[in-house]
Amino acid sequence: MKLPVKPPSTIATLAKLRSRGDTLARLLSVPWDVAPDERYRHWDTFRHALPRSGFTAEQQWLMVKTARRQQYRPLPLVDTSGEPFVFCLPLPALEMIASVDRFAHGVDDSDVELEGSYSFLFDSIAEEAITSSQLEGASTTRAVAKEMLASGRAARTNSERMILSNFQALEYVREIASLPLTPERVLELHRRVTEGTLDEPTASGRLRRADEDIVIDDEIGNRLHTPPPYPQLEERMKLMCRFANGVGFDGYMPPVVRAILLHFWLAYDHPFYDGNGRTARALFYWSLLNQGYSLIEYVSISNILRRARAKYSRAFLYVENDENDATYFVLYQLKVLLRAIESLQSWATRKLAERSHVRDSSLNLRQLETLEFLLGGKSRQVTTPSHARKYSVGIETARLDLNELVSRGLAIRVRDGRSFVYVAVR
How far apart are alpha carbons 276 and 187 in whole angstroms? Predict the structure, then answer.
């Protein structure tokens, strides 16, 4: 990965300007925004897209950075040298936050109803589990992975184990969504995310040890990040949990910004031997659900991140490369989240249209969605245990659901070894 160009020293630029009073006066006479042209650019791209003529790139950067510093708000997160991370909320961020809020509270322009749909929820959690694992190297196909999760069969490969563990971890996130975050719950979340998937099995559910301090390099050996050392991890995690629970930061912070910064915090600290990315993204979901954004569990951010891994990594690099300015990561993740919401709404509209041919007012929603699933492919089948697990109902309720489909002539029951499977009637 090509590393971003480090911004020039504003102190050095200002020193040069002091001998050129006319230029400094002209610079000061112009209003400078933190995000010229509504783009919060890092120096890496800012130097090629200057907002004004008549000034050098360094001179314009000096003024934009000065405007940003006046709006920076320090975070309780500090880097390995003790310097705090900061952020600000330029106009583009405020506009995106408002869009996320409209969706999360069900007041956007979409006509798609999501809450109460078992199928949408299962598919969304499955999608996030699959793509979050693929970001970390899982190599199975989406179709095979969804078949495994829907049928409840055991994982056959390490990639499938990663996906299954991630799925179970996201279900755990839903279980603890109303509870405060504690170090113990973070460790339990990591254990569930990584169970059966690590080269070092004992590393699941614990902080990395003193002999496991790591550095993050790219594929050609460029040093990208050096996380905090082992002795700091326990205390840093306590501070992270305080921040996640709304303690340790003065003033108001939009819920989605808190969730994004929590994601960044765990990824920066990298407190685990492996599985940090999956755990960080799971914490993002916990934070939004905990703050009342119930519709967010239908959204898969990893599906968007997977398509542009380099931009995801670069958002982290921009922060450390420019005075710990976490605004870069906040803005990037807001864009990802909005794209994920748009993708969900488009997908949900298609699914509702596809479901129209199996509408039957006398069937319950579980039966309708099961019938839709069975009609979606020649080899699709369900079992009583898989139906019970998917819809969080008892075995007897699941059996009644499926047997009613059989009695109506919509499905048939076929013996498979010592058990039965249900398939659609064509």
Answer: 11
Give DSSP secondary structure letters for 187-213. Answer: HHHHHHHHTTT-SSGGGTTS---GGG-
Separation CA 292–CA 305 (nearest Å): 24
- Measure CA 275 to chain center: 14
**Residues facing residue 73 across a β-bridge:** 87
Q: What is the DSSP string of 260-301?
A: HHHHHHHHHH--SSS-HHHHHHHHHHHHHHHTT-GGGGG--S
- Segment 311-357, tens digit of pLDDT: 999 999 999 999 999 999 999 999 999 999 998 888 777 766 666 65
Q: What CATH number does residue 405 fall under?
A: 1.10.10.10
Instruction: List, in order, residues 6 or more apart from 171 with CB less than 8 Å away.
Output: 125
- Whether residues 45 and 120 fall in one domain: no
Helices (H), 376-424: 384-391, 395-407
pTM: 0.85
Q: What tens digit of pLDDT does each residue of 134-182 get?
A: 888 888 888 888 888 877 788 989 999 999 999 999 999 999 999 999 9
Q: Is residue 81 part of a domain?
A: yes
Q: 285 lies in a domain?
A: yes
Domain containing 19 equals 10-71
Final residue in a domain of this structure, among 315, 349, 383: 349
The DSSP annotation for 14-75 comes to: HHHHTT-HHHHHHHHTS---SSGGG----HHHHTTS-SSSSS-HHHHHHHHHHHHHHH-EEE
Of 330, 309, 425, the C-alpha closest to 378 is 425
CATH classification of the domain holding 125? 1.10.3290.10
Where does 136-202 have alpha helices with state H? 142-151, 158-175, 183-194
